[in-house]
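ugh ok fine here u go
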Amino acid sequence: MNILVVGCGKVGTQLSNVLSRMGHDVSVIDQDPRRLAALPDDFTGYTVTGVPIDQDVLRQGGIEGCDAVAAVTDDDNTNLMVCQLADEVFHVPRVLARVYDPQRGDVFSHFGLHTVCPTNISVEAIYSMLTGRDTVKTVYLDSATVAFNAVDPTPEQVGKSLGELAIQWGSVHRALFGLLREDGNLSLAYPGCPTLVEAGCRLLYAKVVD
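structure:
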């Protein structure tokens, strides 16, 4: 897929790197050239420095030939405007925005845009952990419901890479999402991921339940 990522902060950097490693054609736009320069050395995508709501900048990023756009800047309004342009002007088939303010999610939905709200996701995760209900987590992404199930790795899985497990232990019913470490950090799973599964960690699987 040809994917444009708008915003090269922590989320944009990791997202762009994962997409690039998975073989997608990735372009990244950010106003700050220092953020773009901080992308990993093995990033194979294309970078553009400029104001992301400028249509000429979006064209430089290849939006006219994109299959998908992810607006993940630190500003909700910028993400909304980028998604509106992508949807209404450039007719990109798949558009997604990160929204910090949960109430603005309704505004985005009014425009028919897909959203991910890290605030809601964090609150859900923290609540589950505080109440001891962290085995299964449910996240709502627009009209879809995604269930995350954390399980202990089997002896056969310990010592293998997430890249191996993503291929061997995934299915049409669920997909390996990542590895939860004892300190609470999460490593995403993707084909070729070198992260090794260790005893004491938990594997996080995801499936769409609605």
